[in-house]
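FORM 12-B: Structure-to-Sequence Request
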């Protein structure tokens, strides 16, 4: 039987969740295992409230009996745990493969502790190979697309069921094929100045630690231990 590294990471990260916390629940196939585990913990008596980063996660959490709270009704989030598409040793990450990047960034920005969970394939020398998703406004999206093209970012509009992919916020996603190594600060500055781009999947140094599922179990790294290679 093959080892499920995403499950290993998701379940390990759930151990950080304690009674009384407000928890940000991520989106994607790794986060699904986390939410599953949290549901089990809630059934066994854990008392938390959660903020979901997508409709999909909200549905899963509801099904499992996890109490949900609207993001507008929390002052802060104690811990946010979410998946990631690519991450380097400086904790510069790309997220949004599932299209939930805008809500994921709002939730992470409100959290006192941020943990990214992943299998070990997500750890890379330099990010850029995974297409960088950017959420763009439907109004004038073709103009925005041309601006992204002019920046040399090789944008591709994300599709679903023969139409454009629509985010939970009613917007579109353009995936930027930039390549590694990406100059993340330069890209950030240019995208911040591109009218029509609402948010990006660049999550630069936003996490406190990462939980990585490997063949030998879960490894936890913070900014210091990952640089030291421990
Ligand atoms: C969704 C995300 C996901 O967390 C990211 O795409 C990782 O997904 P997975 O755990 O399925 O590999 O950012 O918007």
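FORM 12-B RESPONSE
SEQUENCE OUT:
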């Amino acid at each position: 039987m093959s080892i499920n590294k995403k499950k290993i990471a998701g379940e390990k990260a759930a151990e950080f969740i304690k009674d009384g916390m407000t928890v940000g629940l991520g989106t994607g196939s790794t986060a699904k295992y986390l939410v599953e585990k949290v549901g089990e913990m809630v059934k066994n008596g854990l008392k938390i409230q959660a903020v979901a980063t997508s409709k999909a996660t909200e549905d899963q959490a509801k099904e499992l009996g996890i109490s949900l709270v609207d993001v507008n009704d929390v002052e802060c989030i104690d811990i946010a745990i979410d998946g990631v598409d690519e991450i380097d040793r400086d904790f510069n990450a790309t997220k949004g493969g599932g299209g939930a990047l805008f809500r994921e960034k709002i939730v992470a920005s409100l959290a006192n502790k941020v943990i990214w969970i992943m299998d070990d394939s997500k750890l890379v020398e330099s990010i850029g190979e995974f297409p960088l998703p950017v959420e763009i406004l439907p109004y004038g999206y073709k103009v925005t697309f041309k601006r992204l093209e002019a920046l040399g970012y090789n944008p591709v509009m994300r599709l679903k069921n023969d139409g454009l992919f629509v985010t939970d916020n009613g917007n579109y996603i353009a995936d930027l094929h930039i390549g590694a190594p990406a100059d993340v600060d330069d890209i950030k500055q240019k995208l911040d100045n591109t009218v029509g781009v609402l948010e990006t999947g660049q999550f630069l140094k936003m996490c406190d630690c990462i939980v990585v599922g490997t063949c030998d179990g879960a490894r936890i790294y913070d900014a210091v231990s990952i640089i030291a290679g421990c």
